DNA sequence: CGCTAATCTAGAACAAGTTTCAGACTTGAT
DNA sequence: ATCAAGTCTGAAACTTGTTCTAGATTAGCG
């Protein structure tokens, strides 16, 4: 029988979180395990904040989080998994923060653009961290699909929140997907120095106009 | 003084290619060097076609192309550089091919969507190659910016071609950028198995509607 | 308490990208 | 034809992600 295994998963920090955006708490973890996991994620974010993707070296993460290399790999089967998990973690924060002060815009498109720009500003404060997370996200192969999908759902939830929609139409979901595409890709161009902050802003605002197209009289 | 160094760059295969999409032929190469370069790109594409990004191993590329490892690195300073160059190469082909049979759609949005779907179908024929190229492209860091930018310009040219525009407005260029974002990101979701081909099609068609937004009476 | 299975640790080992180096080869110029 | 400078080769070395192993620990159970 298992050794460390009990304690309830203490997710759902933010009140009524949609089940679709809550991580599927697979095997419940011991307190010590939960603590290890947090230490690892913390070390990962910290190293990433310093030097971006390259600075997150597995041996360093292991050392910083006081865990053996093998253990690190037991928790996160690859560097990409680790960074995607780090992103999930950060996104949860972000979503919580964004919920508190909902965007002010009149129309849905404006609110979404405002929300994304707010998120973008947050990323600008830790550009290296953003680099590590976004690079990992787009570099992830099939073996990380579930986790990446989770991030995607969380992002979708944030956008739908901003739109103020309960039951989006298929067309609106398409628009949201395209917005997400633009969001990710625009971040990449910014991170690799091929687009300015202003440029990203324009792209976001441009793509958000798609929302008007799917619901000319959009509001809640 | 330089040793191997002369011969004119024999780019511009396709007649009147816009200067903005022509590689800035830096130091002209010897014929033997040009041949080496081609062998390398060929080996790269071949290995990529087999097993995607991971199958393109620098030692293997070197061996396949009958070049020493050090030489390979002299031509392409990193695996990412190599794969991005491979993409440039493939894109040139693609653009040439696409030029021949221009899209039929009435409206600009339709023509762009049709063109991109055509390109998408081409990629589907070599999914592993697509994987290698696209992953490299989005993973590229600042050191590869010039090359990635070149790919971006080439892509822009293809889209503008499909739109049939000579002097796009700033607004239209924004739309094109957003379309490119969507194109790249949608490819990624497809390659990582998180979106179906049908899904990609919808996303492309959705984003192309932005064009109508910037030019309601769009045509040539 | 004492047992058993799972987990953790330290460290070696392996894989693939990248760098380095000494010597052989080419090239353009004298 | 010869020379100087730049290029190519083959091979070793180095780096960092990933895997493997043997032994120490920990957790849950009777």
Automatic annotation (TrEMBL), chains A, B:
The keyword DNA-binding applies. This is TetR family transcriptional regulator. The keyword DNA-binding applies. It comes from Streptomyces coeruleorubidus. Residues 57-76 bind DNA. InterPro entries: Homeodomain-like_sf, HTH-type_TetR-like_transc_reg, HTH_TetR, KstR_C. PROSITE patterns: HTH_TETR_2. Residues 34-94 form the HTH tetR-type domain. GO terms for molecular function: DNA-binding transcription factor activity; transcription cis-regulatory region binding. PANTHER family: HTH-TYPE TRANSCRIPTIONAL REGULATOR RUTR (PTHR30055), HTH-TYPE TRANSCRIPTIONAL REPRESSOR KSTR (PTHR30055:SF242).
């Amino acid at each position: 029988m298992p050794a460390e295994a009990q304690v309830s998963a203490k997710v759902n920090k933010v009140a009524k979180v949609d089940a679709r955006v809550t991580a599927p708490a697979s095997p419940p973890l011991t307190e010590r395990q939960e603590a290890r996991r947090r230490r690892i994620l913390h070390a990962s974010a910290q190293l990433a904040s310093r030097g971006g993707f390259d600075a997150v070296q597995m041996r360093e993460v292991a050392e910083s989080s006081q865990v053996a290399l093998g253990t690190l790999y037991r928790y996160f089967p690859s560097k990409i998994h680790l960074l995607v998990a780090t992103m999930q973690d950060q996104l949860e924060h972000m979503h919580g923060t964004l919920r508190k002060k909902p965007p002010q815009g009149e129309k849905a498109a404006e609110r979404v653009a405002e929300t994304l720009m707010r998120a973008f500003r947050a990323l600008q404060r830790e550009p290296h961290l953003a680099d590590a997370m976004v690079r990992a996200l787009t570099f992830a192969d099939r073996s990380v699909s579930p986790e990446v999908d989770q991030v995607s759902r969380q992002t979708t939830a944030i956008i739908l929140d901003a739109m103020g929609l309960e039951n989006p139409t298929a067309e609106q979901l398409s628009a949201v997907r395209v917005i997400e595409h633009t969001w990710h890709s625009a971040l990449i161009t910014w991170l690799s120095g091929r687009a300015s902050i202003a440029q990203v802003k324009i792209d976001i605002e441009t793509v958000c106009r798609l929302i008007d197209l799917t619901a000319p009289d959009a509001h809640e």
